[in-house]
């Protein structure tokens, strides 16, 4: 991958012809939050950082900030320094005067027989307070960390907001990740508690989730960190729904413990703006995931601002981001952004196509959803299994979002014509775990749409594209390079938890103009994506330049998958490559070479796949494990992943004459392409 960065891994080719434009409707523009193009002047490069006051002012501050940005310790920018606020207060308490009885969260369980829960702001406030009281009684205080490993149930945002209320830093691990992955992250963040659940519904099955908590606890212990306790929510109020037994003295059933805290209220702790709100682990180029640390004031201001202007959320909207809160998308655009704006946010527990491909559209009809947000993978799969389903339901979106991976123009058009019924605007939002919120997207009432392009930058974001030698690629030239952001913005992560040097090296070192400088102009942020900008100013994102695979919009580190394969003793070498996939964009394919003298077998293949699922979780499972006689290698012994990747994509291997063992390529080709 790194040997051929600008080719991208997405199947989108720079040579693609530019698409025709589409325009937002007058009806949409008439009601939009942002219709004044002057915002781009107000947020010009010259007006950074002060322009971001506009976002910070969407929040309620206990104490106004003294300094917009502190750059004294570059590139660890501190935003709104001196300011104080509480995120839980901003997402709940301050809405009570006007919206106490309005739904904050519509919870849709996967089984269609279960009634939808409409949790009002008042009820959310009560539940967050009571859970915060429980956490407080366990000695949790501002700055402590808690790992939350929960599925898509209301208890997840409730747990997050209860932590935020106390100034406790939450670290949510995607519910579909393995117990081992949760345990590693709990150890890395030195969490005091693990918050888990007995079970949840996914694709028609009530899964045992509690068994993962046991594994997580042990894994954390094995890494030298002992959790104080495991809190277990019950999926059903009055019964325990897991076959895995509770561990006496360690596990506490939250629903039972909460009876002691009925009616208890906890004052939101007034926190410094630059204190951390949460950690979100993401994959990088090494086996160790990075805990991206996001601040309270800067992050919340940025997600509130972008939710208002790019998502066009009004309190009257029923907003549905069909993603998982366990990823950054869900943090920013299911929980913090929408709730900061007093929206009604939909949470759906299950798989989009359970029991059939009409499910999302039935939910949209039932709840009167006006804004819909999901990933290209979900759009591709709904299109494949139910291309005519949306037309059968009476719903009307005004706005739709795509996020996480490039969307092919073909798929975009189905989203627009069939899902959006040609009534909804679409924004294609490019951003990252590190960036907290959107970087590139059309601003929906101001820009025309172009299928397959993420659009220009959003207000206050000033991209620049550098080539590998550090020269600026002229804007609008259509030439690919490494996309960077010239300026800091409040949503940018503060650091990598416990690895500040890695933060500097990964995101700033390459194009930093002067490492001693405390002027932010010298510190462009390198996103790690290849991109090009067309003449009209719209960016097309071409894919990662590092060893990260973007599967179904989720980031997986190739090193993490390879290390998982190497836990199988028979495996001598492992290499993961991204292979094109009709639904998921790309999927990992794994090549392994065995220890000398061992034979390939189906059982061994299965053992390797299972090892990946145990180490990381089912989403990281390779599509294929190819057990090969040897890896194609350079003379210096480096595995040539580029060669494997073209073989996986059914292409030819290209020039292999420089390899140490060119003959093995033909053997592998026959194996893979037959
Ligand atoms: C990719 C998800 C093309 C990109 C919010 C980025 C995209 C990585 C888009 C971040 C998009 C995200 N078009 N590619 N609209 N959005 N990406 O951290 O490669 O899970 O670097 O954040 O996804 O993935 P992450």
Question: Quick gist of this model?
Answer:
Helices cover 27% and strands 22% of the residues. The chain has 674 residues and is an alpha/beta fold.
Strand arrangement, major sheet: 12-11-8-6-7-14-15-23
Q: Look at the helices and sheets and give the structural class.
A: alpha/beta
* Proportion of residues in helical segments: 25-40%
Number of strands: 30
Cα(first) to Cα(last) distance is 24 Å
Ligand catalogue: 5'-O-[(S)-ethoxy(hydroxy)phosphoryl]adenosine
Silhouette: globular
Tally of DSSP helical segments: 20
Structure in words:
This protein has 674 residues and is α/β, with parallel strands linked by helices. Helices cover 27% and strands 22% of the residues. The protein is built from 20 helices and 30 strands. The strands form 8 sheets. The protein has an 8-stranded mixed β-sheet, sandwiched between helices. A 7-stranded mixed β-sheet has the order 5-4-17-16-18-19-20, with helices on both faces. The protein has a 4-stranded antiparallel β-sheet with strand order 21-22-24-25, with no helix packed on it. The longest helix is centred in the N-terminal third of the chain and has 17 residues, at 121-137. Mean pLDDT is 94; it is low at 1-15. It binds 5'-O-[(S)-ethoxy(hydroxy)phosphoryl]adenosine (WTA). 5'-O-[(S)-ethoxy(hydroxy)phosphoryl]adenosine (WTA) binds at residues 282, 327-329, 403-406, 428-433, 454, 527-529, 541, 544, 550, 555.
Topology:
Elements: H1 26-31, H2 39-42, H3 53-56, E1 67-70, E2 78-81, E3 84-85, H4 87-91, H5 96-99, E4 103-108, E5 117-120, H6 121-137, E6 145-148, H7 155-166, E7 169-172, H8 179-188, E8 193-197, E9 199-202, E10 205-208, H9 210-222, E11 229-233, E12 251-253, H10 254-257, E13 271-272, E14 276-282, E15 290-295, H11 297-309, E16 318-321, H12 328-340, E17 344-348, H13 359-367, E18 371-374, H14 376-385, E19 399-403, H15 409-419, E20 425-429, E21 463-466, E22 481-485, E23 495-496, H16 500-507, E24 525-533, E25 539-544, E26 548-551, E27 554-557, H17 558-565, E28 571-581, E29 585-594, H18 602-615, E30 625-627, H19 641-648, H20 663-673
Parallel strand pairs: 4-17, 6-7, 6-8, 7-14, 8-11, 11-12, 16-17, 16-18, 18-19, 19-20, 29-30
Antiparallel strand pairs: 1-2, 3-13, 4-5, 9-10, 14-15, 15-23, 21-22, 22-24, 24-25, 26-27, 28-29
The structure holds 5'-O-[(S)-ethoxy(hydroxy)phosphoryl]adenosine.
